[in-house]
């Protein structure tokens, strides 16, 4: 036999295996975070097969992730194949990229195929309208990304369309320390809910809404009263640690939420909601005087990252509902509850949602603003 190098011919991928790979991948690039469709020209939008079938264990033993035995055994095995675009196909075969190990590529394949299976198994009752609400918080102009919303929804729900129902009032230039800020934003919010949410309730009877909101807390409570518990809604919370995401961290332990009742009933009533930070009684007395009964909804260790999982939000809703009911037993219908909120945004929305317009006392909501030296009256929500 000559000393020439004998090159083994690469086996063709069986049609059935290739077809299965296309189906299981949804015809999209399986590289993590790529996901581009492989059946069309992205520029001309014409049909075009631009896929590459790539190997996890290299097709050649001296190639990327190659093996003297496995390269031959797994050359046409479905579990060893990835459907990739040209760029990602080249990326994983660069030897200098250390993170493209066999295990990382196997996990990438499993994750993408699992997501496609979840998406294709969704039923009509899983449809949800994505609703965003933003308003300037001090000098901060919040934004909400559509892709982040979808990641939070899946796999429990999927978006009705690729459009967000935007209720934002961010175009209004007035600052939140001005007296007429609250009236202008509140009226604007009422109008936009009337125009964009109410027609869907009439048309679809029981639409589902997924709500993502970043705004001053009095406006979030107002939003909650407008969508109320009569609509089927999921309220999401932005988590900033360990990484920023709207997806519930349900592997975290649920936190107990407590209702602390006053020892004496005075002529005025305050409801302090202190989940993100402590609120001392003297801050309430500075606004309402000494003759006030202070009810508190709180946790053992108030902090900005207190709300991680959905069960904690449910615990919070139950105690707010409990507070409204117990306070009503102590006061006449024309007596308002003065609400002092320091809590996560989703809790603020739920504070409004569980309030019942025909049954509960009116709410006077205060805003904490250093420009106004503490709490100041923001929005009044009247009962019927």
From TrEMBL:
NCBIfam families with a match to the protein in the record: SAVED (NF033611)
Record CDD domains: HNHc
Organism of origin: Flavobacterium bomense
Top-rank lineage group of the source organism: Bacteria
Name this protein carries in UniProt: SAVED domain-containing protein
Domain SMODS-associated and fused to various effectors: residue ranges: 191-381
Pfam families in the cross-refs: SAVED (PF18145)
Residues of the signal peptide: none
């Amino acid at each position: 036999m000559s000393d020439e190098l004998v090159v083994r011919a690469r086996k063709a991928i069986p049609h059935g295996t290739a077809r299965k790979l296309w189906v299981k991948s949804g015809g999209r690039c399986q590289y993590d975070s790529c996901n581009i469709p492989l059946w069309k020209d992205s520029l001309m939008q014409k049909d075009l097969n631009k896929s590459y079938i790539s190997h996890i264990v290299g097709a050649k033993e001296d190639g990327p992730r190659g093996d003297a035995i496995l390269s031959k055994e797994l050359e046409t095995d479905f579990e060893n194949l990835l459907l990739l675009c040209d760029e990602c196909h080249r990326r994983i075969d660069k030897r200098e990229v250390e993170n493209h190990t066999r295990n990382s590529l196997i996990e990438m394949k499993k994750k993408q195929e699992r997501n496609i299976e979840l998406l294709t198994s969704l039923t009509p009752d899983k449809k949800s309208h994505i609703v965003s609400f933003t308003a300037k918080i001090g000098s901060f102009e919040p934004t909400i990304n559509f892709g982040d919303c979808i990641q939070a929804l899946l796999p429990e729900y999927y978006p009705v369309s690729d459009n967000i129902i935007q209720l934002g009032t961010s175009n209004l230039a007035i600052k939140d320390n001005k007296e007429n800020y609250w009236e202008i934003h509140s009226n604007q919010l009422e109008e936009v809910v009337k125009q964009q949410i109410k027609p869907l309730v009439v048309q679809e009877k029981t639409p589902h809404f997924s709500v993502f909101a970043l705004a001053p807390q009095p406006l979030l409570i107002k939003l909650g009263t407008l969508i109320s518990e009569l609509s089927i809604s999921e309220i999401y919370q932005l988590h900033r640690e360990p990484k920023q995401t709207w997806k519930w961290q349900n592997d975290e332990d649920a936190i107990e939420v407590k209702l602390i009742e006053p020892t004496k009933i005075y002529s005025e009533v305050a409801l302090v909601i202190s989940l993100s930070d402590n609120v001392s009684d003297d801050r309430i007395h500075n606004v309402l005087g000494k003759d006030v009964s202070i009810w508190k909804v709180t946790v053992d260790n108030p902090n900005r990252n207190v709300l991680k999982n959905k069960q904690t939000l449910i615990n919070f809703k139950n105690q707010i509902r409990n507070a409204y009911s117990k306070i009503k037993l102590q006061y006449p219908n024309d007596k308002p509850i003065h609400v002092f909120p320091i809590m996560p945004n989703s809790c603020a929305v739920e504070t409004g949602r569980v309030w019942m317009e025909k049954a509960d006392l009116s709410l006077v909501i205060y805003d904490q603003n250093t420009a106004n030296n503490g709490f100041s009256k923001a929005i009044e929500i009247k009962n019927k």
